[in-house]
């Protein structure tokens, strides 16, 4: 019989009520103009004087409804209320709407709900002196520490200074290579790249990812990688040559290394001086060492940097480029042929080198 | 080429070339152009970032080497009582003029 207070007019009338979690549930009401006290009654909370009623207005503001204050529910949609135990309210701004909140802090998730802010946008707290502070996903904003906080949202955007050029990204994980391209630097040129942050610095490679979310990222600083520091790097010896080869190369004072790239075995001789007539003074020379060497013959050789004649004349049979550890070596198709066939047991790297030197000299001989 | 550089160095030596001094630049970068033949050093909050000079061979190239601890390759800079800079180890340009030299007490020693 007690339900008889429901009039015809108010039948089926309800409001939506949530706590600070903003999970709304419908609550039936008997009256289109309830007071704050009546709303607490509909919500069945006690003691009522310890609770606060807030109305979340359709424009986005959140306002207190005092116990003797009347709310007019003429709207088409159900009115939304936040009911929470609280002894005071904290005021703040969210995208220029004024909100009251019954707790000392508000979660980032609640801010997004109240501001209808999509996940593509980031939340920031306005600051006067320092730069505006982002509100991280999953964190909460204290409301009791400072004065009235002002929160705003904007599309996610990350800035990075690349050697004095500021580039903007719409995602926080950035490949160093992409950052260089976006800033107008040629990533293939060869750079010493230093990632400078508030806390320090570290060298990064062109293929590294930088997380712009980490605080204090300032800058990618570039220096051309064109100067060696005169310290000869340790030469690699990934496979052995014949003793006569190793002794011969060392006796000639050559800097050489052996390594495997893919399935192919390479001997590379560094800083080989060239006879006059080439555009460069020296080159690296690569010789492929077949796995069945010295039974199998050594054939051809490869130059990096690629050689050209000073007079611009083309060098025959050098048009093919071979990638060795990512460097484009110029293949010199010079074969032993019938005149000087490979003699297993007699020929080796040193005798092949004589052919290499002869081939290099032949192209620039007057 | 090397012989030519040594020759130039020797000829210049005859005219008793003035040693190179040091100019500190506040910040983590060096200027795009070096106005003098001095060694320019980028220094930020007391930390040395890099050193630069115009290539001593006269090719006009701007050279820059890193001084930061965290970076490879890197060089050590020392400055003697007369304010003259030395770089360790040698400076060796990988392409172009391929200059290879030491800077010791403000003077270029060709390799
Ligand atoms: Zn030069």
Automatic annotation (TrEMBL), chain A:
Pfam families, A to Z: Multi_ubiq, Prok-E2_E
Organism classification: Bacteria, Pseudomonadati, Pseudomonadota, Alphaproteobacteria, Hyphomicrobiales
Residues in Multi-ubiquitin domain copies: 24-84
Name under which the protein is recorded: Multi-ubiquitin domain-containing protein
Domain of life: Bacteria
Organism: Sinorhizobium fredii (strain USDA 257)
């Amino acid at each position: 019989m007690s339900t008889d207070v429901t009039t015809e007019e108010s039948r089926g009338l309800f409001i939506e009520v949530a706590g600070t979690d903003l999970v709304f549930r419908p609550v039936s009401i008997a009256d289109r103009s309830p007071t704050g006290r009546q709303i607490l009654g509909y919500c069945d909370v006690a003691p009522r004087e310890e609770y606060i009623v807030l109305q979340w207005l359709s424009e986005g503001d959140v306002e207190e409804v005092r116990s003797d204050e009347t709310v007019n529910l003429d709207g088409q949609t159900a009115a939304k209320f936040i009911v929470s135990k609280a002894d005071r309210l904290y005021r703040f701004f969210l995208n220029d709407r004024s909100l009251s909140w019954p707790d000392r802090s508000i979660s980032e998730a609640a801010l997004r709900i109240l501001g209808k802010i999509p996940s593509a946008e980031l939340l920031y707290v306005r600051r006067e002196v320092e730069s505006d502070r982002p509100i991280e996903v999953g964190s909460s904003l204290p409301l009791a520490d400072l004065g009235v906080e002002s929160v705003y949202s904007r599309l996610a955007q990350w800035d990075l200074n690349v050697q004095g050029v500021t580039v903007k990204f719409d995602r926080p994980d950035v490949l160093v290579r992409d950052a260089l391209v976006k800033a107008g630097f040629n990533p293939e040129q060869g750079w010493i790249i230093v990632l400078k942050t508030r806390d320090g610095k570290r060298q990064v490679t062109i293929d590294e990812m930088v997380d712009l979310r980490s605080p204090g990222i300032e800058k990618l600083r570039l220096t051309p990688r064109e100067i060696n520091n005169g310290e000869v790097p340790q030469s690699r010896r990934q496979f052995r040559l014949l003793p006569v080869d190793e002794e011969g190369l060392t006796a000639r004072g050559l800097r050489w290394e052996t390594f495997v790239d893919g399935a192919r075995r390479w001997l590379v001789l560094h800083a080989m001086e060239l006879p006059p007539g080439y555009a460069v003074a020296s080159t690296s020379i690569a010789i492929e060492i077949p796995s069945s060497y010295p039974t199998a013959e050594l054939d051809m050789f490869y130059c990096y940097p690629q050689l050209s004649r000073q007079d611009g004349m083309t060098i025959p049979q050098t048009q093919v480029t071979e990638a060795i550890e990512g460097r484009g070596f110029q293949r010199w198709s010079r074969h032993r042929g019938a005149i000087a066939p490979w003699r297993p047991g007699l020929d080796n790297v040193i005798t092949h080198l004589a052919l290499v030197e002869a081939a290099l000299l032949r192209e620039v001989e007057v | 080429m090397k012989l030519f550089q040594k020759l130039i160095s020797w000829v210049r030596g005859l005219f008793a070339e003035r040693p190179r001094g040091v100019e500190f630049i506040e910040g983590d970068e060096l200027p795009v152009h070096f106005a003098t033949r001095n060694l320019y050093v980028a220094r930020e909050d007391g930390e040395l970032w890099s050193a630069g000079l115009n290539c001593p061979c006269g090719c006009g190239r701007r050279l820059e080497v890193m001084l930061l601890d965290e970076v490879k390759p890197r060089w050590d800079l020392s400055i003697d009582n007369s304010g003259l800079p030395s770089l360790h180890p040698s400076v060796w340009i990988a392409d172009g003029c391929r200059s290879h030299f030491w800077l010791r007490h403000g003077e270029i020693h060709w390799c």
